[in-house]
């Protein structure tokens, strides 16, 4: 609902796709702007109440167009911005349609290119059962090609994954020591077949393969990585995922906190030097055998050494 000005500078009410003008000599009643329609609404001080049904369908596009025009006129009269910027900012506030099915999805030309004007839509399989849209610019694909290290991440949260789709999957590269998302994949599922199709598209557009790739532990992704990038090392096989590592570090931090409190309170007993020497020897053995044992066994021995 909004109030706009007509071409004659009179207030008009935009409500539910209909346009009303104020009835003569009334501050609370609005009549439909179409002469053939006798519908009117009444304002009771809190809400607008429909008095009579319309004889025509609502026109949401007309409502959006009027609000768009009003915003342009207001900005043009109150700011010194060039017309192109005024129109661009007004367009940003126009709500995009929300498709109800994959059949309804058509990506317009203005969304197929980046803000710089270069191509952004890398692939759209237009499959109404397993829809997949992949976005990346040529510059970002070049950056990914020149990145020795890469990592991927899938986000399943409803507020991030678009409506109708299952997840937003991103592929990151490393530029000047910083990880940057370079490829965005909007996917309607998480099957191995979909990941296979996704990596097929991306790998066709990059000239070099990464030396190492980090992935969250997901069996379908792991299988595809092993098949598509057999010469690339991946962290799932060599070590835990980032989240598992953080969880382990949380435990380690908690143990350090307890130890610090004990030291501050004088609760740690003094031991002989020979015990420190033995502990140092055990620590060196544990560190030197890091690559020869599983993560769980390593942390088990480390906890035993530090008594936590």
Automatic annotation (TrEMBL):
InterPro entries: MULE_transposase_dom
Entry-linked Gene3D superfamilies: 2.20.25.240
Lineage: superkingdom: Eukaryota
The protein, known as: MULE transposase domain-containing protein
Sequence ranges assigned to domain MULE transposase in this UniProt record: 151-235
Pfam families associated with the record: MULE (PF10551)
């Amino acid at each position: 609902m909004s109030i706009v000005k007509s071409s004659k500078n009179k207030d008009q009410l935009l409500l539910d796709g209909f346009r009303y003008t104020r009835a003569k000599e009334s501050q609370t009643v609005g009549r439909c702007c179409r002469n053939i329609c006798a519908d009117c609404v009444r304002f009771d001080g809190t809400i607008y109440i429909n008095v009579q049904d319309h004889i025509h369908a609502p026109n949401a596009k007309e409502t959006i167009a009027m609000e768009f025009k009003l915003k342009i006129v207001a900005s043009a009269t109150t700011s010194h911005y060039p017309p192109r910027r005024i129109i661009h900012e007004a367009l940003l506030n126009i709500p995009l349609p929300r498709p109800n099915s994959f059949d309804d999805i058509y990506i317009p030309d203005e969304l197929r290119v980046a803000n710089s004007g270069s191509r952004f839509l890398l692939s759209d399989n237009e499959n109404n059962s397993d829809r997949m849209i992949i976005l990346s610019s040529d510059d970002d694909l070049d950056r990914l090609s020149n990145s020795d290290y890469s990592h991927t991440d899938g986000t399943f949260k409803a507020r991030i994954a678009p409506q109708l789709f299952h997840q937003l999957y991103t592929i990151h590269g490393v530029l000047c020591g910083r990880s940057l998302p370079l490829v965005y994949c909007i996917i309607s599922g998480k099957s191995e077949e979909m990941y296979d199709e996704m990596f097929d598209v991306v790998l066709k557009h990059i000239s070099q393969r990464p030396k190492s790739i980090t992935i969250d532990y997901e069996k379908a992704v792991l299988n595809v990585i092993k098949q598509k990038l057999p010469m690339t090392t991946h962290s799932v096989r060599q070590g835990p995922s980032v989240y598992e590592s953080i969880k382990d570090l949380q435990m380690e931090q908690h143990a350090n906190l307890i130890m610090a409190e004990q030291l501050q309170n004088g609760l740690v007993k003094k031991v002989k030097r020979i015990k420190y020497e033995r502990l140092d020897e055990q620590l060196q053995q544990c560190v030197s055998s890091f690559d020869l044992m599983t993560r769980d066994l390593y942390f088990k021995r480390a906890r035993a050494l530090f008594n936590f």
